[in-house]
TrEMBL record:
Belongs to the EMP24/GP25L family. The chain crosses the membrane at residues 168-187. It is found in: Endoplasmic reticulum membrane; Membrane. This is TMD11 protein. The keyword Signal applies. Residues 12-110 form the GOLD domain. It comes from Circaetus pectoralis. Keywords: Endoplasmic reticulum, Membrane, Signal, Transmembrane, Transmembrane helix. It is a single-pass type I membrane protein. InterPro entries: Emp24-like, GOLD_dom. GO terms for cellular component: endoplasmic reticulum membrane. The gene is Tmed11.
């Protein structure tokens, strides 16, 4: 997931990332500040840092740390589900004066450690092949974990759908019985009315 978004200087922005359990998540970000004179975003935002907060599906804070104007954060999930990743600048200016617009570039990678080409190039050929093979095995484990997680989600969704369909069926049966009961009661009431008035 690679994206950028605009934010106020004191504004907190959050994204939701659906992550399987026991999975490494690595985030890279860069902050740019709007320059009024140049009418453009500056390549760096000196003096600005970012508070990064990660919350688990159980609403527990997994990570809460202050980083610089650009940096890398990482965490390992212990629960599967939607993790909330929030970023907010560490500006100390009052909200009324913190009018600068920020552009935040964010790249989030979900999975095992990614291949470091500089490490690969420093090895001899045999070690390079071995290193790449280990990396591929890690990737296979990650894909297998993702598939198991998707299978669990699909099974949970199927159970919820079946329960909903079952509830709808029972509600339809109850409605039908109520309508039949009301119909029988109305017929009996009309019959008793006609008999009492000696119309029948």
């Amino acid at each position: 997931l690679a994206l950028y978004f605009h934010s106020g200087e004191r504004e907190e922005k959050c994204i939701i990332e659906d992550v399987p359990s026991d999975t490494l998540v690595i985030g890279n970000y860069k902050v740019q500040r709007w320059d009024i004179h140049k009418q453009d975003f500056l390549e760096s935002a000196p003096g600005l840092g970012m508070f990064v907060t990660v919350t688990t599906p159980a609403a527990e804070v997994l990570l809460s740390k202050l980083y610089g104007p650009q940096g890398t954060f990482s965490f390992t999930s212990y629960l599967s589900g939607e993790h909330v990743i929030c970023l907010q600048s560490n500006s100390t200016r009052f909200v009324a004066f913190a009018g600068s617009k920020l552009r935040i570039h964010l790249d989030i990678r979900v999975g095992e450690h990614f291949l470091d080409e500089s490490v690969v190039q420093a090895k001899d050929k045999v070690n390079e092949v071995n290193f790449r093979l280990e990396h591929l095995i890690e990737q296979i484990h990650h894909i297998s974990k993702e598939q198991n997680y998707e299978r669990e989600r699909e099974e949970k969704f199927r159970k919820t759908s079946e329960e909903t369909n079952s509830n709808i069926l029972w509600w339809a049966i109850v409605q039908t019985l109520i309508l039949i009961s009301i119909g029988i009661w109305q017929i009996k009431s009309l019959r008793d009315f006609f008999i009492s008035k000696k119309l029948v």
